[in-house]
Design goal:
The chain is α+β, with helices and mostly antiparallel strands. It is about 35% helix and about 25% strand. It is built from eight helices and 18 strands. It has helices spanning about 55-70, 110-115, 160-165, 170-190, 230-240, 250-255, 270-290, 300-315; strands spanning about 15-20, 25-30, 35-40, 45, 45-50, 80-85, 85-90, 95, 100-105, 120, 125, 135-140, 145, 155, 195-205, 210-215, 225-230, 245. The strands form four sheets. Strands 8, 9, 12, 13, 14, 15, 16, 17 and 18 form a nine-stranded antiparallel beta sheet that branches. It has a five-stranded antiparallel beta sheet with strand order 1-2-3-7-6. α1 runs parallel beside α7 (about 270-290). The two termini are about 35 Å apart.
Length: about 325
């Protein structure tokens, strides 16, 4: 349980800065390269949990790598190499300050808003008469942006994004086009594996040459929600909870234990048994969505392994 990577403090050659997000840590190098390390940190409701999840970083990194390879023919991406199971290396980009969230089904945040009586999400209408986990007539794009203070994601409409000048209209049209193309491809890949891609988010950046590319993760359990296709309609008809593979099961566990990231709330204690079950769920998703058996990386000393692999790669660049 203790063999997880929850923080890094590397000093790579030509390193000029480090950015530490909720899950990933990004090392910027002088040669316009970024070294992105996927840690084992678990974030929910914009709060990082006290304990890491074994193999989570490896799983996120390797799913994202496979999915970028499977979509690079329709959308360019930032990735150039993966020298370590937890590491991705790619071109430095200026990130757009919006997350492009796309939903094929009324689940998660959308369902919570719907239950609260709201029928407009990010400026997009949701039809009357829907049940939680019903399929939307067409996928809807419901963007999110960061608040000016704090780290909480905020819903925002297309109109507000353009009005506030967060993204130019020309660029936003590209982001929408890429988002729909990626979701369609992700839906097809999931269907081949007997899964339904329910919703997901994509992040984009612009290279120094001005090219818009896909960055960060794609179709991972941290950024996406999946249902099992087998039995989906029957469960809907009977009003049962859908069998799913995503981080939503962690959110639901936290809610049941009195935590939603609100002021004054305390993160509930996660036992070793529960942490192991979360790790197993992540491995289950990896194997289901990729069709490959998960091969656990050597975690006897993850920090040393990552440093050695990255340095070896940088020597050859």
């Amino acid at each position: 349980m203790s063999n997880t990577i929850t923080d890094t403090n590397f000093n790579f050659p030509n390193q000029k800065s480090v950015y530490k997000g909720k899950v990933r840590e990004v090392y910027a190098l002088d040669n316009n390269l970024l070294v992105m390390i996927a840690t084992d940190r678990l974030s929910a409701f914009d709060v990082v949990m006290p304990k890491g999840i074994p193999y989570k970083g490896q799983i996120l990194n390797q799913i994202a790598t496979k999915m970028m390879a499977a979509t690079e023919d329709i959308v360019p991406n930032w990735l150039t190499a993966t020298p370590d199971p937890n590491v991705a290396v790619g071109h430095a980009c200026e990130p757009f300050k919006v997350e492009m969230v796309i939903r094929g089904y009324m689940s998660g945040h959308a369902a919570r808003e719907y239950k609260a009586g709201r029928r407009i999400l990010c400026g997009v209408p949701m039809p009357e008469g829907m049940k939680e986990n019903d399929k939307f007539p067409e996928p809807i794009i419901t963007p999110a942006t960061k608040a000016e203070k704090g780290d909480h994601d905020e819903d925002i409409s297309r109109e507000d994004i353009l009005k506030r000048g967060i993204v130019s209209e020309e660029d936003y049209l590209v982001l929408e086009k890429y988002t729909r193309a990626l979701f369609q491809r992700g839906t097809e890949i999931a269907a081949e594996r007997g899964l339904i891609l329910v919703d997901t988010k994509y992040e984009f950046g612009k290279t120094i040459e001005g090219k818009i590319v896909l960055i960060d993760e794609i179709h991972t359990p941290d950024s996406s929600r999946y249902f099992y296709a087998d039995g989906y309609q029957g469960r809907q008809d009977r009003g049962e909870t859908q069998k799913q593979l995503s981080k939503e099961f962690v959110r639901q566990w936290l809610i049941q234990n009195g935590f939603q990231g609100l002021e004054g709330q305390t993160v509930p204690e996660m036992s070793d048994a529960y942490i192991e079950s979360v790790s197993e769920r992540y491995i289950e998703l990896y194997e289901n969505i990729t069709g490959d058996t998960f091969i656990k990386g050597d975690i006897s000393n993850i920090q040393e392994r990552i440093e050695a692999n990255v340095l070896n790669y940088l020597e050859r660049v």
